[in-house]
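Posting this for the archive.
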Amino acid sequence: MLLPENVHPANSLYFNGAYVLAALKRIGEADLMGLFIESRKLHEMQFPLFTLTLDWLYLAGMISNNTNGNIEICS
């Protein structure tokens, strides 16, 4: 699912994760829907793929929730 052979790269977690990280890098931190909207400005993605991408980024230690409950890039 990260970069499978039988799925177009635009539908992979790896590809969409780059856009989510780019959106977070641009805005700093955001709530779930705010980040979804900002990510969709960079690349069209459906909400289920977006949430799965967030799960992958969280498990990889690339994003976290701050004390305000917003999503941010781990430093």
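The longest strand covers residues 63-65. The chain has one domain: 12-73.
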